[in-house]
Design goal:
This is Large ribosomal subunit protein uL4. The protein is α/β, with parallel strands linked by helices. Helix content is 32%, strand content 14%. β1 and β2 form a beta hairpin.
């Protein structure tokens, strides 16, 4: 597919060819959702902890005798229905980690990139850099492209000066192409990429890295 290229002043100057298997597939919403949920779940520490009736402080003696008082039957003061008693079904530390096959992760990334390309929210910028490390340099590029919502500025390789220039702008994150992830791509309203970043994405998730779809065939009898 063709992606338009803009200069730092926001003018469309040319087009480049981009791999269809990375930027022009039909987005798979189900896989995208699974990858998003898995990544968010993997961020959870799972440290919530409550004490059960065997872990709280308190006497183990029976509160009162079983019969003859006309009152309810009660055992330990540490039972969950007593004030200060243990929790009956409270959380315990455990892992929320979810594992996805590598092909599903790659399909989710390609679906997110293709969705941005199809919606016109992906901008390829010639000369996307901030060698002076100044926030106003990146802000001027975003203003020229009319990017006023959450955005990701993507470079081909890690660029410390670009990251330093973008980190002080609200709702803007600077990432190298290899660090792209589903959550950031889905949450972003705009992607601002260098041409090197486009080629890096193609090298990472296109070409030989795309697993062909195999369908079952039935042999004729």
């Amino acid at each position: 597919m063709k992606l338009p290229v803009f200069d730092t002043a926001g003018n469309r100057i040319r087009e480049i060819d981009a791999a269809d298997e990375v930027f022009a597939i039909e987005p798979n919403g189900a896989v995208l959702h699974q990858a998003y949920v898995a990544q968010m779940a993997n961020r959870r520490a799972g440290l919530a902890n409550t004490k059960r009736r065997g872990e709280v402080a308190g006497s183990t003696i029976k509160i009162r005798r079983q019969k003859g008082l006309g009152r309810s039957r009660q055992g330990s003061i540490r039972a969950p229905h007593h004030v200060g008693g243990g929790s009956a079904h409270g959380p315990k530390p455990h892992s929320f980690a979810k594992q996805l096959p590598r092909t599903m992760k790659r399909l989710a990334l390609r679906s997110a990139l293709s969705n941005h390309a199809r919606n016109g929210s992906l901008f390829v910028v010639d000369g996307l850099a901030a060698p002076d490390g100044k926030t106003r340099t990146v802000q001027a590029i975003l203003d020229a492209l009319k990017v006023d919502r959450r955005a990701i500025v993507i470079s081909g390789e890690h660029d410390p000066s670009l990251a330093r220039a973008a980190r002080n702008i609200d709702n803007v994150k600077a990432l190298p192409a290899q660090n792209l992830n589903v959550v950031d791509l889905v949450n972003a309203h705009h992607l601002v990429m260098s041409e090197d970043a486009v080629r890096k994405c193609e090298a990472l998730w296109g070409g030989a890295n795309v697993k062909p779809q195999r369908g079952r065939t039935r042999e004729a009898v």
